Structures are given as structure tokens and as C-alpha cells.
Amino acid sequence: MSNAEACRTVGVNLRTGKRWRNGRAPSGRNVGAPPITAVAPPPGPSRFLREADRIHIADRLREKATVRAIAAELGRSPSTVSREIRRNRHPGSGQYRPHAAQARADSRRPRPKTSKIGQHPQLRDFIQDHLDLRWSPEQICQALRAQFPQRPEMHVVHETVYQALYVQGRGELRRELARALRSGRTRRKPRRQSQQRQPRFTTPMVMISERPAEADDRAVPGHWEGDLIIGKDGASAIGTLVERATRYVMLLHLPTGRTAEHVRDALVDTVQTLPTHLVRSLTWDQGSEMAAHGAFTVATDIPVYFCDPASPWQRGSNENTNGLLRQYFPKGTDLAVHTRDHLDAVATELNGRPCKTLDWETPAERLHKLLAA
Predict the structure, then answer these.
(1) Measured between alpha carbons, how far is 198 from 194 in angstroms, rounded to an integer?
(2) What average pLDDT does this structure show over 35-51?
């Protein structure tokens, strides 16, 4: 309704209704009849915005408050308030009216809903025809966007197609079409349940949380961190080892590949050049190159500890050293062309740099003191 029609229906003066609608507090002789009070919302926090929240948003928008300020007052995320304003404002004028916004939100909430594929027969037929041709759902979705660029109702993502095939009770696509998928499955295979995850390696990993405390505080030398720096197209690599207490660097020569066997053999050859008391443990990430860590431990009696997924800070010294090594071995270059002598020269140069964390001693000097002791 317009403001005048609403005031006539409620039975109040036009100006009184305008004050109610704009949220202005009446004062002086302009005090009119008290506004109609809404039913009190149930106590406690709500997952969804309530009508009172929407009235608050409307009042504060008229006062030119920022979205972040409104969100802080409501105890909501700024994105929640921003999305509410964008989705439920008036489609023509762009004004945010709380009661109309509440009506729009209520109309969207009822469940169950017919999916996009079920609502558009042309879209459903297109998907069924191309599944018969053994197209993958992702290929079909890209073809829809290319063939109907100006028709958003014909655009879906491939997850929508998979749900129409697999989710029981949907029925938007013929059940037998699931057999046209390349996997051949008629039921979806869950992949995110912890009890169904496949072990990373054949030999179980020992996580970094079980590493001795002496390795964490860097008080005792002999605990190393390792990783690979990868060359062009992932075809070549150089292994890096950094001792946690002295920051001493050693490089692994991998001229013929970076498989688990290549890395295992290079590690065994490298650690055997060090005194036994200077090789107490090795910490690595969960890269596939360490699949033979069990064989490495059997050959050298050195335990291997693995970092948590996506936690590079657990090997901070090694990550920092890899950044320094990129000055010598830039990204996008073939690392297999570097000889053993060149790798030794680079390691010697790095070990000859004074480090602030070592009170400006070099890693080579600090390691020499340990060997002398």
C-alpha cells in the first residue's frame, strides 16, 4: 500500500503514519496515538533475522548508519546485514521496508521446494539428453552457459545435477541416468567421513604432536626439518634439510626424479655423512615423496614426524630457507640441471651467512662448535 492508503486502513493521521513508518520518535505536540505493538518474539537468540531486527535495520539505515555498526548492534555478522538489505529491499525504489522485507523472507522459507531443474522442463530435457550422450555434469553445465548466455534460469552448477540424480525423493532426472555417469555408481559415495578416509601412507604417520619436547625448544641439536622445492611443471625437485638449533642447511640431489624411493635414498645418503648425535629426528609435511618414511627409519634409526595438514609454520625454519633458496633456484626453472657440486656450493654460501637468530653467528660456526664439543 501507499502511505496514505495504509494510514486510512489503520485509522491514523497521514503524518502520524509517516512518523511510524520512518521510525522517528514523536515529541511535543506531535505526539500521536501509540503505534500498534507487535507480538513479542520468543526469548533467546534466533538463527534467522526477526521482524524486530528488520525494523532496527530500517531505522538505522534512515539515520545513515553503516552496515558494520548495525551488525554490531544486532550481534550479527556484517555480511548477514548486507545480504538482508540486498535481498529484501524494494525491487523498484531500492528502499528497505522492514515489514515488506519480513514478508519476502517468510515467502522464501517454506520447505520442501522444487529445485531449479524441476521448475524448468527445457533445462531438465537438456540435461537428460546430454547425460544420454555420456557427458559429465560439469561439461553439461558449461554447455548451458555457452548456449544460453542471456538466460540465467538455464544456468546450474554441476552439484545441482548430481543432487538431482542421487538425492532420494527429488525425481527431477530419471534414476537410470545415474548409470550414465562415468563412475557407474547409482548411489553417492561419501568422502568426508573420517572413518572412511584412506590412510595417507602404508606405514602409519607419527604426528608432530608426538615429537620430543627437546625438538620444540631447539635446545638440543640434531632435529631436522625437510621439504622439496619443485621445478618447472613439477618434473624436477631439490630436497632441503635444515637443522632447527643451528639453521644449518643441506641439499638433496634428485637428478632422476622425486618419487618416494628417490627421496628415501637421497635422505639415507645425506644423513649418513653426519655424526649420530646430530641426527635425532626428521620433520616433514605430508607430501607423497615421504611414502617410504618407514624404510628410511629402518635404514637409519631416525624417526620421522609429520606436520598437520596446511600447517607450514610447524616447519618454519625450513620454509624460510626455501624462500632464500629461490634466489638460486627460481620458480618455473628446471632443477635437474644443477649438479651435486653446485648444490654444495649454494649450501656452503647459505651456511656462511650470519643469522640474527644465532646472535650473528653463521650456521657453519655454530655447527662447528657443536662438533668440537
Answers:
(1) 9
(2) 66
How far apart are alpha carbons 105 and 118 in whole angstroms?
22
Query: Nearest to residue 227, comparing CAs of 202, 246, 196, 254?
Result: 254
Q: Could you tell me which of 49, 46, 109, 42 has the C-alpha nearest to residue 85?
A: 49
Does residue 271 share a domain with residue 221? yes
Among 4-13, 15-24, 140-149, whose mean pLDDT is lowest?
A: 15-24
Category of 310 on φ-ψ map: left (φ > 0), alpha (ψ -120 to 50) or beta = left
228 and 160, same domain (yes or no): no
> Of 350, 359, 91, which is closest to residue 240 (Cα–Cα)?
350
Within 13 Å, how many C-alpha atoms sit on residue 184's CB side? 0
237 close to 231: Cβ distance less than 8 angstroms: yes
* Residues 227-241: b if buried by 16+ CB within 10 A, e if exposed: bbbbbeeeebbbbbb
The pLDDT confidence band at residue 38, using thresholds 50, 70 and 90, is very low
The domain containing residue 52 runs over which residues? 3-25+47-108
Residue ranges with strand state E in 258-340: 281-284, 304-306
Give dist(CA 330, CA 338) in Å, integer.
12
Q: Which grid cell sits at 119?
A: 521448475
Place of cell 567421513: 193
Could you give the CA distance from residue 274 to residue 370 in angstroms, rounded to a whole number?
Answer: 12
Total H helices, total E strands in the chain = 16, 5
Q: pLDDT at position 42, please?
A: 57
Asked if residue 199 belongs to a domain, the reply is no
Q: Residue 228: in which H helix or E strand, if any?
A: strand 223-230
In the predicted model, what is the mean pLDDT of residues 361-372?
A: 90
Does residue 249 lie in a domain region? yes
